[in-house]
From TrEMBL, chain A:
Keywords assigned by UniProt, alphabetized: 4Fe-4S, Flavoprotein, FMN, Iron, Iron-sulfur, Metal-binding, NAD, Quinone, Translocase
Function: NDH-1 shuttles electrons from NADH, via FMN and iron-sulfur (Fe-S) centers, to quinones in the respiratory chain.
Taxonomic lineage of the native organism: Bacteria, Pseudomonadati, Bacteroidota, Cytophagia, Cytophagales
Keyword Chaperone (UniProt): no
Protein name (database record): NADH-quinone oxidoreductase subunit F
Family: Belongs to the complex I 51 kDa subunit family.
Organism: Spirosoma oryzae
NCBIfam families found in the cross-reference section: nuoF_fam, PRK13596.1
Keyword Transferase applies: no
E.C. designation(s): 7.1.1.-
UniProtKB/TrEMBL annotation, chain B:
Organism superkingdom: Bacteria
Native organism: Spirosoma oryzae
Protein name, per record: NADH dehydrogenase subunit E
Single GO molecular function: 2 iron, 2 sulfur cluster binding
This protein's UniProt keywords: 2Fe-2S, Iron, Iron-sulfur, Metal-binding
Pfam families, per the entry: 2Fe-2S_thioredx
Positions with a binding annotation for [2Fe-2S] cluster: C89, C94, C130, C134
TrEMBL record, chain C:
Family: Belongs to the complex I 75 kDa subunit family.
Pfam family, one: Fer2_4
Entry's Gene Ontology molecular function annotations: 2 iron, 2 sulfur cluster binding; 4 iron, 4 sulfur cluster binding; metal ion binding; oxidoreductase activity
Localization per record: Membrane
Stated name of the protein: NADH dehydrogenase subunit G
PANTHER family, sorted: NADH-UBIQUINONE OXIDOREDUCTASE 75 KDA SUBUNIT, MITOCHONDRIAL, RESPIRATORY NITRATE REDUCTASE
GO annotations of cellular component type: membrane
Provenance organism: Spirosoma oryzae
Sequence ranges assigned to domain 4Fe-4S His(Cys)3-ligated-type in this UniProt record: 97-136
Primary location: membrane
Keywords of this entry: 2Fe-2S, 4Fe-4S, Iron, Iron-sulfur, Membrane, Metal-binding, NAD, Translocase
All residue ranges annotated as the 2Fe-2S ferredoxin-type domain in the record: 7-96
Cofactor field: [4Fe-4S] cluster; [2Fe-2S] cluster
Amino acid sequence: MTKKILTEHINVPGIETFDVYRQQGGYTAVEKALKTMTPDEIVEEVKKAGVRGRGGAGFPMGMKWSFLAKPEGVPRYLVCNADESEPGTFKDHYLMKHIPHLLIEGMIVSSFALGANKSFIYVRGELMYVIRILEKAIAEAKAKGFLGKNILGSGYDLELVVQPGGGAYICGEETALLESLEGKRGNPRNKPPFPAVKGLYQCPTVVNNVESIATTSWIINNGGDAYAAIGIGRSTGTKLISASGHMRKPGVYEIELGLPVEDFIYADEWCGGIRPGHKFKALVAGGSSVPILPANLALTLANGEKRLMSYESLSDGGFATGTMLGSGGFILFDETSCIVKNTWNFSRFYHHESCGQCSPCREGTGWMEKVLHRIEHGHGHQHDIDLLVDVSKKIEGNTICPLGDAAAWPVASAIRHFRDEFQWHIDHPTEATQPGAVYRGEMALV
Amino acid sequence: MTTESTIQFTPERLAEAKEIIARYPEGRQKSALLPLLHLMQEQEGWTSTEGMDYIARMLDIQPIEVYEVATFYTMYHVQPVGKHVIEYCRTGPCCLMGGDDVLAHLKQRLGIETGQTTVDGQFTLKEVECLAACGMGPVFQVREQYYMHLTNDRVDEIIDELSKQA
Amino acid sequence: MEDTKPQLLTVTIDGIAVEVEPGTTILQAARKIGPDVAPPAMCYYQPLKGSGGKCRACLVRVAAGSTKDPRPMPKLVASCLTAVQDGMVVENTTNPQVVDARNGIVEFLLLNHPLDCPVCDQAGECDLQNFAFDHGKATTRYEEDRRTFEKKDIGPYIQLHMTRCILCYRCVYTADQITEKRVHGVLGRGDASEIGTYIEKAIDNDFSGNVIDVCPVGALTDKTYRFKNRVWFTKPVDAHRDCPTCSGKVTLWYRGDEVIRVTARKNEWNEVTEFICNTCRFETKKTSDWVIEGPTKVSRSSVISANKYRADLEKPSFGKRLAAAEYKPIHDERDTSQLSIQQLPPERFAKTLPSAVEPEP
């Protein structure tokens, strides 16, 4: 059994209530932080822990906190990004639904560390039932004196507001989220200025993912060094992995970073292997935006070593043979999956979710989707594959926010690793458009 | 030409709306726009122009600011919809679990295509993108309720159940 | 003694150094050097606060961030929003990556554009036309259906052609910043976004006509000028009048003795210098209403400059430089001595070539 930091008590009956959560040792971090620590000491512990942003970018959280500008007389804000919408990712949904107080406790200590007196949890609007769970938990915590004025007699005030989104993937991008929180369209802002300087209401703001904030309680209770001792190298701690697709046991798993990908897929403790009677074809390791890998490259690095579930190991080999840990949306494909169809599906997603503000993303995502749609439906041309690669290159890196990259990578990587399959669709349109038809040419299945 | 709106919040919802507006710092009441639109849609079933104009007045902003926002986000139905809006996830992981086949069955069962409403006004079918329940796919949502691990039989049960609701 | 003058920063753009004040953007610094190195701007509009960053036409490469931190920036940056640092080295058209990205932007902007220049009133003074001339290709790789929109009527003065719109948001900023109540905005999202009023409504206020001048393309045009003439056949004349609402400083566009259009005055970057009211623009079209100042000096990189009094002697154009850079003698099987075509020698263009970095072979 690997170490569990976030989900240790998740199966305790009634853990969603304050009392049970408290019995399991909940809210001790708030007591410790507010009574015995200074905000700077907390930031220091989080830095020591080396925890990296769990929303996808993997930016060190302590460093992000230390960038927060602190001008006199200007309020500072902490905003929790719970706009989980990346296809393949459902860990925050799971965490908030089952153990809402973990997030609230993390919000309290993090807000204290950053000097915020009003903090927001921006939850995607589709999860309205989770919003109600969180609001109930906040009311409980407030009734017990852990929120509101003069928390635990420390003189520190904090108000938590749960804000619903309106249905837009782009609001998971931190500046789009802030725009949305200000009651506007979710158009990402040009950076700089970064939110740490000018964020919500033009005030210094930190935006962190649910899972990142939830780890802070454990770090305060056990120390940054203890957290850094878990995991591997610069990938410290544990990570929630959302496992979906063709496996025996889909679900959310908390793993210690550094676990071999092979173990995660095949061991009974986690995914339990590919669904019976089928073979492993491809893997999207970190949410739909990261490059897709064929089975052999998913399990081993180019040099033959085992690939591990860590930021470094998953990105080993760059875009040629690697991918990214991203948000931990682990989507497994067996040999019945059509890569072309899936690439079109993801491309349609990014087309649908583009905010339309900057031209490469607005026009490019639609173009890629239409070309992929043609190929998938038997109307592809020989030059379409090269066209897709070129269009994806013209989007990548040239947009206001990372959605452009997120739209480009799945297409570019699918063509890089499964070009034959695209070619087959173009060469054999009649065959390829039969119901359930999948390319059965030469490829490494595991 | 602006007509006096006939739509307004019920007293309970008005109280809730005021409580929502009070959450934000002074002068930042526009932040309440998304929650208020949800509240209005919960009451009216959809987001009408009159409803949006009412919210604009409440927040002291221009109506166009509300229209811009309501048309940006996918959850606001700016056209009238049926009693139950089925928002069906069409994204990759759900498709891997047979989402397309279940969707086809659902369409056949309801006798409508995506974007349409049944003749009796009971059901509207919408396809949406990822609902963050990928491990439990295929998934759809009706109002706040998630329905997971869908199969053709399960879909039939759900439709029967919803049809019976008064 | 403290120096009260702000320290000037030195930035080098395409090999040309220029001194600017702190807070200046790369685009403004480049404009200070001249049109030869100024990146194109489709959405940035200096008089409008908050504009810029959207079209990505002005992307440049920062080869060195500053003297203090000379590392290059990892991605191309929007020059209209990126502030200059002392010692910054910027590559504009000298960098093949930048040129390639811009070619891409033109292609993206034209994907769904109707290419109806022959019937578009904006033709000849269209930023997109100029941008496409400089960075575009003669053919398209786009085989899909073009996006269309339902036609919307936004009042008696302004014609909206949504299909031509590139979503620069300039008209939205204009309505926000110089009119009291904004009634139009961007509706929908992604490539289905459109400029509109949502409910059938006329954009009606004293300054609404200015959205026509700020529009970089033919999406918003003057209904009172519709199909009256091609802009390059008209004669612009600076004029003013005593207007109770605005400055009254305008440009009158003549066909013969007839004023067929009134616009605000624009500088060499196609930006309005002073916004004008609708009365001046739409209702005051008799020469006797105006005090004529003299012919407008036009110096914009566009067809509009043809046959006009020019503010400068020669307008350099990127297209010409590109032609020079790519110059190859035409391989022609025919006996060219039979043709009465004088082929221009490449030296003809060489003088306008910047100290270009040779692209990697």
